[in-house]
Amino acid sequence: MRTQVGIIGAGPAGLLLARLLANAGIDSVVVENRSREYVEARIRAGVLEQQTVDLLTEAGVGDRLQRQGLRHDGIYLQWPGERHRIDFPALCDRSVWVYGQTEVVKDLVNARLADGPLFFDISDTAVVDVETDRPKVTFTDADGVARVLECDVVAGCDGFHGVSRQAIPEALRTTFERVYPFAWLGILADVEPSTDELIYAWHPDGFALHSMRSPTVSRLYVQVDPSEKVEDWSDDRVWDALATRMALPGWTLRSGPVTEKSITPMRSFVSGPMRHGRLFLAGDAAHIVPPTGAKGLNLAVADVKVLAEAITAFAKEQRTDLLDAYSDTATRRVWRATHFSWWMTSMLHRSPGSDPFDDQLQLSQLRYVSTSERAAASLAENYTGLPYTT
Ligand code: FAS
Ligand code: PHB
Predict the structure, then answer these.
(1) Is 225 strand, coil or helix?
(2) What residues are labeled active site?
(3) 256 and 316 co-located in one domain
(4) Do 257 and 212 fall within a single domain?
(5) Which of the ligands is closest to the CA of residue 188?
């Protein structure tokens, strides 16, 4: 088979790249090792930056998002006895939108199936000849047929556990990693959210987050030890921990049937460069942020916006300057999101071995961000998404 761009991975990065390229009249083939049902059901991110919403809308995949997405003009920061709102429009004239990644992926899969080939359930994926001008993606398709996809460019959008990053010789790769001594246990529950906007709560027992997916579905998280297992946490234990950690006089946490429960480890990870020859990495294939800053999905979108523009300039005008600049351009934003996500995580989570001095530092930071307009504006502009040009 032959195409202009071979895309590995049908997550947000791979699917959005395929859409942006199709809109530019550039052919691509997307290959994915999971089923359609699996990728569309994978519970992940929930918060979209305004510019992510704008990009999806401009790309023609934002209709349902515009109808069902929930615009949020702020978040609450909480610590025992106090809850403060960070007012995004007042501080940085931007908002965010709550719309589950599962829904983004469904919208993008539907668009992709109309635009071009999308192979689900493949296996044995490999990237070869990336140092030549005829790189290839080899794989076995769902029918067990060995395939060779010849491309002009390969986009590695296959996430943290994919094969693309490994196709860059280890001697040429630099990785930075911080594994946090805690994880998030997340639940989906069929219950009306107990808040209009997200609550990020610091508590001596550990962090808690109240998010949501719709007016009838809540999404909540509690900080747990990374060694804990989902079966260690009954629904009642989760609800008790959430109620304790987000307690506030006059406020009640509504509970309801838990429909999904999972534990996500927390790490910061950056791998560079994000390009080797004709192979370009985007999204979690190149970087992972802890979800505290709601950056993961939005960072994947930002990578793909830059990469789509670079590939289009190459395909249409034989320009290589944007391709050559891609890794540096994308990595600059990756580090800004990595720092912000680390900062939000460090401010809100008690680590094992935290002492009263650590607690006071975190509480002082929370009070400062909640009461200083300048400090709050810094959080607001990062959380809602700095302009793509920075
Ligand atoms: P993805 O991992 O989404 O997609 C990669 C795709 O490549 C997958 O479909 C995978 O099946 C496929 N693939 C992998 N190996 C392959 C191979 N060899 N051949 C073919 N295909 C292959 N972000 C937030 O902002 N907020 C959150 O709350 C949040 N929660 C998360 C919870 C979990 C458990 C995880 C893992 C991530 C979470 N994230 C969150 C981050 C997440 O949203 C990612 O940033 C986002 O999915 C990045 O999208 P992609 O780069 O497309 O990677
Ligand atoms: C979510 O709704 O899943 C969510 C929201 C904000 C975060 C992380 C996760 O920071």
Answers:
(1) coil
(2) 72, 200, 291, 295, 383
(3) no
(4) yes
(5) 2
φ/ψ of 345, rounded to 5, equals: -65, -45
Note down the domain range covering 33. Answer: 5-79+98-176+267-345
Strand-pair category, 153-156 with 279-281: parallel
The residue whose CA has the least distance to atom 2 of ligand 2 is 46
Q: What is the mean pLDDT of residues 360-368?
A: 98
pLDDT one-digit tens code per residue, 221-254: 999 999 999 999 999 999 999 999 999 999 999 9
Cβ atoms of residues 348 and 76 within 8 Å = no
Report the DSSP beta bridge partners of residue 47. Answer: 98
Q: Using a 6 Å cutoff on CB, does residue 11 contact ligand 1?
A: yes
Ligand 1 atom nearest the C-alpha of 43 is 32
63 CA to centre of own chain? 21
Same-domain check for residues 327 and 236: no
How far is 89 from 83, CA to CA, in rounded Å? 19
- Number of structural domains in the chain: 2
Q: Domain with 161 in it: what CATH number?
A: 3.50.50.60
Q: What is the rounded distance in angstroms from the CA atom of residue 279 to the CA atom of residue 233?
A: 42
**Residue-wise pLDDT tens digits, 149-190:** 999 999 999 999 999 999 999 999 999 999 999 999 999 999
Residue-wise pLDDT for 329-350, tens only, equals 999 999 999 999 999 999 999 9
Task: Answer yes or no: do 150 and 71 share one domain.
Answer: yes
* Alpha-carbon gap, residue 133 to 114, rounded angstroms: 28
The amino acid sitting at 361 is L
Residue 390 has pLDDT above 80, yes or no: no
Measure the CA–CA gap between 330 and 336, rounded to whole angstroms.
Answer: 10
